[in-house]
Structure formats: structure tokens, C-alpha cells
Automatic annotation (TrEMBL):
Motif stretch ('HIGH' region): 39-48
Annotated binding of ATP, by residue: 230
Its EC number(s): 6.1.1.1
Identification of the protein by name: Tyrosine--tRNA ligase
Gene of this entry: tyrS
An example molecular function term from Gene Ontology annotations: ATP binding
Role noted for this protein: Catalyzes the attachment of tyrosine to tRNA(Tyr) in a two-step reaction: tyrosine is first activated by ATP to form Tyr-AMP and then transferred to the acceptor end of tRNA(Tyr).
Top-level enzyme category: ligase
Origin species: Candidatus Kaiserbacteria bacterium RIFCSPHIGHO2_01_FULL_54_36
Length: 416
């Protein structure tokens, strides 16, 4: 059986680690590992997903897991390189913390996890004691070298003392978890490295003890070089109210050929041999997009469950001609209506007129030309007759699928 250090390296989870050898952290005695997450939004988004998968790998290898919800640090805000974060009301932060906790527990697959909220201790700190017992271990010289703080100090806006103090608070969190639970590993994204190692240094100075830090790399789309996790400039969330399971599935289905293997390794629990087999199928028949389909199914299942993944997959198959509309149940048709443009039509209307109403054609002349070119498909039938009318039998549960070409589609909804 492969060692955890080998798995983490081969799957692409490791960017930095504080030990000389990664195996010192991962392969010896079982450790207590923590991930801290500030509730700055109502949901986790896919840009955060890699670090949760890293935490899950530690859990499945038998290490103890702590998830720290930053109900306290979110009141301050981690310094951004470009601008001050807006301060959030305590009630908003508390509500977000509860939502993130629920999502994280699901992502971790039901493994035993201790969930703590740093508001429980940070809001109780005595200022003078904090400055004396924690602040004395930090120098301004080192703090201003941190990337985000350095960038802000060079800007016209500058940086407030509130955000300047953030690394001290995160370091204190690590010390508190070390003191209370014996926590000796903190993980996070590479952008958090400075804050993470601040905690390592604080524990070394206060306790004369060695603890560890480990970070994930920034995930990029190799095809575009852009930061992973955006879809048409919008974040892709794991909350189904913010990003529907269908839209979530589509995000992964649209992964570039250059990046899909990396994503299979980072964001799924498939074994290496399974990933290799999938990529071999991809090489043999790239147009079938075996890798992207597997990726979309696996990650959607992980986040939204088997039923939602199957529903999103089936609706996708219907929209792109791989399955029949008649195969959808009531929930599937509801997903279809939400996923694609929809318009109301009457039985007896000409297909040519439906093309215009659905905006698949801009004029009667254009509609007739599309029909003549055999570019129009009603459900699975190519329509070439400009006199063809919509019949009740064309509709399944009140819906029909009208396409112009392979990608232009509209769901026709029959008026009562």
C-alpha cells in the first residue's frame, strides 16, 4: 500500500512543507491536522476544494482532523493584496460559519472530525495579555515581508492595523489547538503560507516544540493559465442554491483536455490505475471526452450525491443528443427546464414559427433556410419540411427539445 506522502505527491496536493522530508509529517506517528476556514461567504467554492480533498486524504490515512471555522478571524479579515476587506456583522459571520461547517463535514465523507470555532477563544482574549504573551514573539520587520501586507503597504490605500494583526491571530489559533488538542500540522492554500508558518514559529518560541505546516498549490487551468474555480467570471459554489447541481456538473464537464488529468487526481477519489485507464480511453477517442464525463460525475457525486449527479448527467445527455427526452422523470424534466432556455408554444404551431419564438432563428426566411439545410432537430427527428407542425405526440410531460445545429437548443413547453 502506498504511503500517504507518495499519494499526496503523485496526486499534486503538495506545494510547500516545513519539514525537510514530507514523510516526516505524513508517514510516521498519527498526527492531529487542522484546516482553518474563514466564513467570508455563504458557501465553499470549487477554488477551495483541493485543500478539503487534502484534509480528507489525511483523515482516510488515520490522522485526527480538526476543522477550524474562523468565526473570530472573519470579523477582522485576512489582508488581501489589493484592498481592505469589508467588515462583516457578527450575526452574518455566525450564520456563514454554520453553513460552511455542514458543507465541510459532507466533503470529508463522514469521517470523524472535530469542528471548532475560533470565536470561542479569540473574542475572550485579554488585549494586554495577548500583546505581552503573543505579540512579543513577532517583529514588524518580518510581518511587512509577507506578500499581502507588503503589497498593501506600497499602495496608496495602505493597510489598517486590524488586518496587519491577522497573522498574529492565525498563529494564536495554531498555538491554541496545539495546547488544547495536541494539534501538530496545519494545512492550507499556498496563499496562506506566511500565516501558517507564523503559527509554527509561535509554538516553537512559546513551547520549544516542533510542529508542521503544509500547503496546496494554486490550481490553474493549463489551457488558459487562469485561476481555477471560475465559470464565465462567476465563482462555482458547492451550495446548490448558489450553483445548481446541473451547472456544477457542466463546469467540470467543460474542463480542458490539458487540465482534466490533474483534476481527476486532485478532486476525485479514483485510484491511480483508474485515472490511468480513463486517460488511455481519452487518448484513443478524445471526442468522446471520457475523462471530462468521469470527472463531472465523480465530483458532482462527491458534493451533491449520487441522485443529483445522475440527474445532471442524464439531462446533459438529453440536451446533447445522447439520450431521449422520454427517459426523463418529473424531477429530470424540472432540471431540464432550469438548465436550458425555455419558451411556450401551442400544439399546431409550425416548427418554423417555433424556431423564431425560441430565438433559434431571427426570421421566417432564416427558419426556412435552416429547415432546408436539415439543421433543425425536434427531439431526435431531423425536420426539413417547413409545413411541419408541432403535435401533442411530440411532447413528453409537456416538453419537447428543439435544436438548431449541435449546440443551439431550446426546451419547448406546451401551453395548456
Amino acid at each position: 500500500m502506498a504511503k500517504l506522502s507518495e499519494i499526496l505527491k503523485s496526486r499534486g496536493y503538495i506545494y510547500q512543507h516545513s519539514s525537510e522530508k514530507l514523510s516526516e509529517i505524513t508517514d510516521g506517528d498519527k498526527r492531529t491536522v487542522y484546516l482553518g476556514v474563514d466564513p467570508t461567504a455563504d458557501s465553499i467554492h470549487v477554488g477551495n476544494l483541493a485543500v478539503y480533498m487534502l484534509l480528507r486524504r489525511f483523515a482516510e490515512a488515520g490522522h485526527k482532523i480538526i476543522l477550524l471555522i474562523g468565526g473570530g478571524t472573519a470579523l477582522v479579515g485576512d489582508p488581501k493584496p489589493d484592498a481592505e476587506r469589508a467588515l462583516n456583522d457578527a450575526s452574518v459571520v455566525a450564520a456563514r460559519a454554520q453553513m460552511l461547517q455542514s458543507q465541510a463535514e459532507k466533503l470529508l465523507g463522514g469521517v470523524e472530525v472535530r469542528v471548532v470555532n475560533n470565536a470561542d477563544w479569540l473574542t475572550q482574549l485579554n488585549l494586554m495579555e495577548f500583546l505581552r504573551d503573543t505579540g512579543k514573539h513577532f517583529t514588524v520587520n518580518n510581518l511587512i515581508k509577507k506578500d499581502a501586507i507588503s503589497a498593501r503597504m506600497k499602495s496608496d490605500e495602505g493597510i489598517s492595523y486590524t488586518e496587519f494583526s491577522y497573522p498574529l491571530l492565525q498563529a494564536y489559533d495554531y498555538w491554541h489547538l496545539y495546547d488544547q488538542y495536541g494539534c501538530d500540522v496545519q494545512i492550507g492554500g499556498s496563499d496562506q503560507w506566511g500565516n501558517i508558518v507564523a503559527g509554527v514559529d509561535l509554538i516553537r518560541r512559546k513551547e520549544n516544540a516542533t510542529v508542521f505546516a503544509l500547503s496546496c498549490p494554486l490550481v490553474l487551468d493549463k489551457a488558459t493559465g487562469k485561476k481555477f474555480g471560475k465559470s464565465e467570471d462567476n465563482a462555482v459554489w458547492i451550495d446548490p442554491k448558489m450553483t445548481s447541481p446541473y451547472a456544477f456538473y457542466q463546469f467540470w464537464l467543460n474542463a480542458s483536455d490539458e487540465s482534466v488529468e490533474d483534476y481527476l487526481k486532485l478532486f476525485t477519489l479514483l485510484e491511480d490505475m483508474e485515472v490511468a485507464a480513463i486517460m488511455e480511453l481519452q487518448k484513443r477517442d478524445a471526442k468522446e471526452r471520457h475523462a471530462q464525463k468521469t470527472l463531472a460525475r465523480e465530483v458532482t457525486t462527491l458534493v451533491h450525491g449520487t441522485d443529483e449527479a445522475a440527474k445532471a448527467e442524464r439531462v446533459t445527455q438529453v440536451l446533447f443528443g445522447e439520450a431521449s427526452l422520454a427517459e426523463l422523470d418529473k424531477e429530470g424534466t424540472a432540471t431540464l427546464k432550469a438548465a436550458a432556455p425555455t419558451c411556450m408554444v401551442k400544439a399546431g404551431a409550425l416548427v418554423a414559427d417555433a424556431l423564431i419564438v425560441s430565438k433559434l432563428a431571427t426570421s421566417k426566411r432564416e427558419a426556412k433556410q435552416f429547415l432546408k439545410d436539415r439543421a433543425v432537430i425536434l427531439n431526435a427527428e431531423v425536420i426539413a419540411d417547413d409545413k411541419r407542425k408541432l403535435e401533442a405526440s411530440d411532447f413528453h410531460m409537456g416538453l419537447a427539445l428543439l435544436k438548431r445545429g449541435k449546440r443551439n437548443v431550446c426546451v419547448l413547453q406546451l401551453e395548456n
